[in-house]
Design a protein that fits this description.
Strand order of the largest sheet: 1-2-3-5-4
Number of helices: 7
Shape: flat
Radius of gyration: 21 Å
Strand content: 5-15%
Helix content: 55-70%
Distance between the termini: 63 Å
Number of domains: 1
Largest sheet: 5 strands, mixed
Amino acid sequence: MNISESKLNQTYYSFLYQNQSVGSNLTAQRTAQTKSDSFSFEDTMSLQYKVLKDQEYKNALEDARVNDPQKYEQMQTKREQDIMKSFMQVEASAKKNGDGKTGMAIYHGIPISFDFEHSVMTVGDMSPGEDIIHVGKLSNGYAFSFNRDNIGDISKMLDLFSPEDINKIMEAITTDNIAKSMEQEIDEDKADAAKKLSSETE
């Protein structure tokens, strides 16, 4: 997929978030197999839409690499700078508001908690018993985890992460969804077996 020259001249941040409303149209593709859970289907589609936008940007970079190497170097460097600048601003804000060991920053209305001693950043309630998705260590040096209820928030802060980090986040969500689906199937099988046993003993 090629992108016009005007789009190539945009910052990575502005390109990733332009026409965000288009992502909402993808929700119409919801299937009967999709079941409600602790996060909304729309949140997941919003996140997937941002990933598609990132892929479109990477395709444009590849086109520039082949046809305009100098432009490619400029775009690649600018994207890395955009990501690093955004994250460093958030990290600095958290350090300013913290006690040296921990801190919190608000980004696009989303509270992001930092544990500087252990290089951990989190989004959402991390209390014991909560449904947590662990992504692992990111390229910024922090291990990242978030509450499953906050998947929609993650889609609003993707410019803090490198493309590789975004892939790790999506993989973690996919793995979690598979695990949840398997748990639900097991529970349903147990319920069906119990119901069948009950009817046989009557």
